Amino acid sequence: MNKKERELFQRQRLEEMKQFEKEICGEEAACIAGVDEAGRGPLAGPVVAAAVVLPRDFDVPGIDDSKKLTEKRREAMYPIIKETALAWGIGIVDHEKIDEINILQAAREAMRQAVSEASRKLAAKGMKLDHILFDAMTIEDISIPQTNVIKGDSKSLSIAAASILAKVTRDRMMVEFAAQYPGYGFEKNKGYGTKAHYEGLRTRGVCPIHRKTFLKNL
């Protein structure tokens, strides 16, 4: 599509995702946190979650499920989201904790951290969370009203924004790890099980940030 068609599409997506949140949370919910994670599937590195609370009048087209965006687009949207959000939070659970409690519980813990940080930032402004939208997840020990949204990163604007923050944060961490632990291709595969990654495991063995519970069959 040409530039004009792309801009029209992005504007339509923005309005669709904003409308979805209004229908789920109601018009009275002023502070809605979208929460998503990145890194449940890789063989190495942390799982990272983000929580994002956007203002109701947010009007910047271009946010979508991070998996649908190019790396360049994610990097461009990353500072915009941080600068325009009412609040945001990041949660990180490392490979050791993942091995200890399993990846599902680690993802939930990262989400709790992210929600907690976003809540603190809102409180500092005299505001509080009205509703949380989780991408395909439920966290029982959070008392704030919440909704589990299947494929939420492609339906909810706030979850999509959170998916971008989580993805970019984790990708940057994996690029840094690539310099510390060369030979696995972390700068490209971000810890996922690519051919280059498996070749690195075969020739170099397990490095300090590998998830050992993910490598039992190797």
From TrEMBL:
Its EC number is 3.1.26.4. It comes from the Bacteria. This is Ribonuclease HII. It comes from Zhenpiania hominis. GO terms for biological process: DNA replication, removal of RNA primer; mismatch repair. Its cofactor is Mn(2+); Mg(2+). The keyword Chloroplast does not apply. PANTHER family: RIBONUCLEASE H2 SUBUNIT A, RIBONUCLEASE HII. Pfam families: RNase_HII. The gene is rnhB.
